[in-house]
Amino acid sequence: MIGAIVAGTLSAPTAPVTNSYESIATVTVGSGGSSSVSFSSIPSTFKHLQIRAIARASGPYTYDQTNMTFNSDNGSNYSWHQVNGNGSSVTANGGTSTTFIRIADETAANNNANCFGGMVIDILDYADTNKNKTARSLWGYDDNSTGTIGLRSGLWRSTSAVSSITLVCSNNWLQYSSFALYGVKG
């Protein structure tokens, strides 16, 4: 009798839900470079947003940082934290009540020539007006033949729907840096 009850409560497995991605906009930096990239008039018809990018900066270091804000809010309404590793050491830190989310790093002028860093940034539940907004990123770059990879997450203390995103480089992104915004259907 017990076997019949257990067998009767099991159901066939369902196929995993697959999210589909729809391209919203792409920005490729031109020959003059750019210190920021913006996406505006973002439709509220998706579950999440994703930015995929390759970037190289002009700063006089081996890497530079990318910061992110939403809806032109430059107030101290953001927090972020990170963990980075390069095969021999790991670092972790963060910031609270900052004016941006430090979302990723990319290669810079003192790194291998023509080497770009990559980043994937997810902005979760961006149109939900019942919660603060969170973002996470996975990024990495070659650091003169020693790779560096990092995980970051951030918080925007606002329940407003995200209608615009601004990414800012600490210095300038070089030509051919490219940023693509996708809507993720839930």
Task: Using brief descriptors, characterize the structure shown.
single chain; 186 residues; mainly beta; Jelly Rolls; 1 helix; 55% strand; globular
What's the gist of this structure?
With 186 residues, this protein is mainly beta. The protein is 4% helix and 55% strand.
Describe what you observe in this structure:
It is a single chain. With 186 residues, this protein is mainly beta. It has one domain: Jelly Rolls, CATH 2.60.120. Helix content is 4%, strand content 55%. Strands 1-12-3-8-9-10-5-6 form an eight-stranded antiparallel sheet, with no helix packed on it. The radius of gyration is 20 Å and the shape is globular. It starts with a helix and ends with a strand. Residues 1-8 have low confidence and may be disordered.
Task: Produce the secondary structure layout.
Layout: H1 2-9, E1 20-28, E2 34-39, E3 48-55, E4 63-70, E5 78-85, E6 90-98, E7 101-107, E8 117-124, E9 133-143, E10 146-156, E11 165-173, E12 178-185
Antiparallel strand pairs: 1-12, 2-11, 3-8, 3-12, 4-7, 4-11, 5-6, 5-10, 8-9, 9-10
How helix-rich are the residues, as a percent range?
A: under 10%
The number of domains: 1
| Sequence stretches where pLDDT stays below 50 over 5 or more residues | 1-8
Biggest beta sheet attributes = 8 strands, antiparallel
Give the termini distance in whole angstroms. Answer: 41 Å
Percent strand equals: over 45%
Structural class computed from helices and strand pairing: mainly beta
The CATH class turns out to be Mainly Beta
**Going across the major beta sheet, what is the strand order?**
1-12-3-8-9-10-5-6
Q: How much is the radius of gyration in Å?
A: 20 Å
What's the total count of β strands? 12
